[in-house]
Amino acid sequence: MKNIVKMSDLTNEEVYDLIKRALELKRGKKVVPREDLYIANLFFENSTRTKHSFEMAEYKHRLNVINFDAATSSVNKGETLYDTCKTLEMIGCNMLVIRHSQDEYYKELGKLNIPILNGGDGSGEHPSQCLLDLMTMYEKFGTFENLNIIIAGDIKNSRVARSNYNMLTRLGATVRFICPEIFKDDSLGEVVDFDEVISEVDVCMLLRVQHERHNSEMNLTKESYHKNFGLTKERYEKLKDEAIIMHPAPVNRDMEIDSELVEVSKSVIFEQMKNGMFIRQAMIEKIIKDNNL
């Protein structure tokens, strides 16, 4: 496999292999250091977790890391994404991690001779987030078969929702959505009422309301959203004992989830962040191996 840019690039076997390898790394297994390789992180959108967990994973591999700064680059002179990436290839980078606001930006990069890891494309996909979510669920349940999962939030603009729905459905889980009409995506699964399903679910995944992708005409207050579509204390009390709460973060506290619930016993929100570094280590290791770097 040359690149990991969308979840459909991966077979079910490859997904399980990545999860199991990441869990090995979490238990203390080591990666082979590669001090001869160079990797560049190109983040054209803001990021804390994805950017820095990729960066930490890269340092764990002993890679030479170049953190590209779009704000001070020739992008501001009109340089295309392809020309920027080709430049990094020509000066010696062996692989790239890219986050970009354009859906499927990677389709323009077919002439590159170095692999790409997608750190998120527009409202398209987010494979590393999907894989860390899968890892977190697998660590808890040991399977995806027959898991009952709800994803609540800004479905329409969420690359996380899209990647997770497609992959989890493929692996045997049932995935349904909770959202206001304005956030609905008809290309994905069934939208249900939060209060009708909350007592049945194994995984309650919450998504950030992406204010930056909405215009000022959106008539949705923090209070009304939380009451109708957020995880309130009352809804939390109805969860099964073994259920888990997830969120890719950043969290709009008291909007998607009551602030007091972010670190309750059923919450694995911060464990997801921890798992993110290990799954990204496993992804980098796979790319190095598959490309004979």
How would you characterize this protein structure?
By secondary structure, the protein is an alpha/beta fold. Helix content is 35%, strand content 14%. The protein has 9 helices and 8 strands. A 4-stranded parallel sheet has the order 2-1-3-4, sandwiched between helices. Strand 1, helix 2 and strand 2 form a beta-alpha-beta unit. The two termini are 12 Å apart.
Overall 3D shape: globular
Oligomer: single chain
The biggest beta sheet is recorded as: 4 strands, parallel
Find the count of extended strands (DSSP E, 2+ residues): 8
Q: Bin the helical content.
A: 25-40%
Which secondary-structure class do the elements indicate? alpha/beta
SSE pattern = HEHEHEEHEHEHEHHEH
Distance between the termini: 12 Å
The whole-angstrom Rg is 19 Å
Q: Overall mean pLDDT score?
A: 94
Please tally the helical runs, counting DSSP H or I stretches of 4 or more residues.
Answer: 9
How much of the sequence lies in strands comes to 5-15%
Strand order of the largest sheet: 2-1-3-4
Low-pLDDT regions: none
